[in-house]
What does this fold into?
Amino acid sequence: MSLLVVGSVAFDAIETPFGKTDKIIGGAASYISLTASYFTKKSKLVAVVGEDFPNEFIQKLQDKGVDTEGLQIKKGEKSFFWSGKYHTDMNTRDTLVTELNVLGTFDPIIPDSYQDCEYLMLGNLSPAVQQTVLNRLQKRPKLVVMDTMNFWMEVALDELKQTLKMVDVLSINDEEARQLSGEYSLVKAAEKIQAMGPKYLIIKKGENGALLFYQKEVFFAPALPLEDVFDPTGAGDTFAGGFIGYLAKTNDISFENMKNAIIYGSAMASFCVEKFGTERLNDLTDEDLNQRVNRFKNLIKFNLAAL
Amino acid sequence: MSLLVVGSVAFDAIETPFGKTDKIIGGAASYISLTASYFTKKSKLVAVVGEDFPNEFIQKLQDKGVDTEGLQIKKGEKSFFWSGKYHTDMNTRDTLVTELNVLGTFDPIIPDSYQDCEYLMLGNLSPAVQQTVLNRLQKRPKLVVMDTMNFWMEVALDELKQTLKMVDVLSINDEEARQLSGEYSLVKAAEKIQAMGPKYLIIKKGENGALLFYQKEVFFAPALPLEDVFDPTGAGDTFAGGFIGYLAKTNDISFENMKNAIIYGSAMASFCVEKFGTERLNDLTDEDLNQRVNRFKNLIKFNLAAL
It folds into this structure.
């Protein structure tokens, strides 16, 4: 089934305890599109970059089956740029530079050929822009998944709450869930956030895995214990790309199948953090994916009879 | 199979965001013995209390099949007392009072009738006392499990390292694993700690579950997402009690069966935190345990075919 991905395509410069990069490819939609390409060849991208953005990466997306008709290239302007430095624990980071550039005035134009998309992934962007995308689609997609960040809870809470009413699945991290709900307990937080609109809530906990809430049910997927987390940038977006990519491929949006999608999202995220930026997402094979998913299965497998 | 439990039996006074207790029953061996009693009626306790310790609790242990011949009651002396206050996140706490009292001169005397024990749980105590217990057993138990704390890494690292060489399973939390190994990555930490002696390493991550390392393999058990963690005191000891109690009951120390033991330990710990102190561990039924274990199974169950 066809998948529409909306989000940032940008430059990042990253420093971790393991090293430092110059400007490399970043942005939520870059990670999501690359990752989803392992599951579906029918994905379409809406994003904006400046004239400084390398054509090689756009070509790479096209080679992987991503339709880039909706990628706007602004002449004479610069791409969004973020730079950050991770602390030793890799769970916290300092933002060093944020240059909005083309993203500051992003108008998400949907090409006519995108109108039939059945799966929509709204990567982290201002809630107003996310809402505009939904309003411009003539037919509501079968499933709308949205990511957001604490920043929007601080500067655009009302718009965020309006947008939340329009989506099926919200994907945020544990701190964001606590901030959005005002509840410390993630179980209570999930209940409050589900009442805001999304029927499904994914709470990402980084190296501590991810929870999927639906009605009164909950599913948990661990993260794979890794020797080293080299660079966590984009892990959440990669997770989202694997999640919605798997759903679009299988075209089954039951809670049971979403559990499988969470496992694939976790598997893809476990690749992402092994190298800087999007590097590890370039050349994975089906065999790599299956092996990684099997490691997840083995990690939590036990065979217990009743007492 | 018979189980010997050595550790503190004491008083705690606890403050959490949900309330505050006067002096209540605490101590690692109290939690371990109570919990293990749900799995084996052949457990034996070595500990020390003062004259101030209530006979009702000793009676309760006996009623649950715990042999208290090795519980020393020191006339004219006072029991170990700890008081602490938890922060909102429940993962950090301030110690308000520590009165060693009888624990300061604890000499772990092993009654002759305990010499045949096949499973040994060394609750958190000074590594020197833990070592004395091992030296006083004429026959090495089939399995020795040891708990310890960061405090001993700071004040008695050499003795701790000596004791580590004598045990089969070490159970510590993530921060302690990092401190003991000097490695941030838990996978690397586990490798270093296994080289110190214990063939098996359990790393407890509180609300984020627990890992069991053996050779190059790893098993992960989640913690149950709970509406409220009322009081985390004793959760790690309860986990240990469920772990070794299940192993003693089933008398199977394979890695596969240890996975099951980890699940039972996690299930018992999820009860523990629902009320203050040992309260929730008093009157559980087999039905309660089975239901809880089923919640763990459902939490992580997925049914995934290869891509």
The longest strand of chain A covers residues 66-74. Chain A has ten helices and 14 strands. Chain A has a mean pLDDT of 96. Chain A touches chain B through 40 residues (CB under 8 Å).
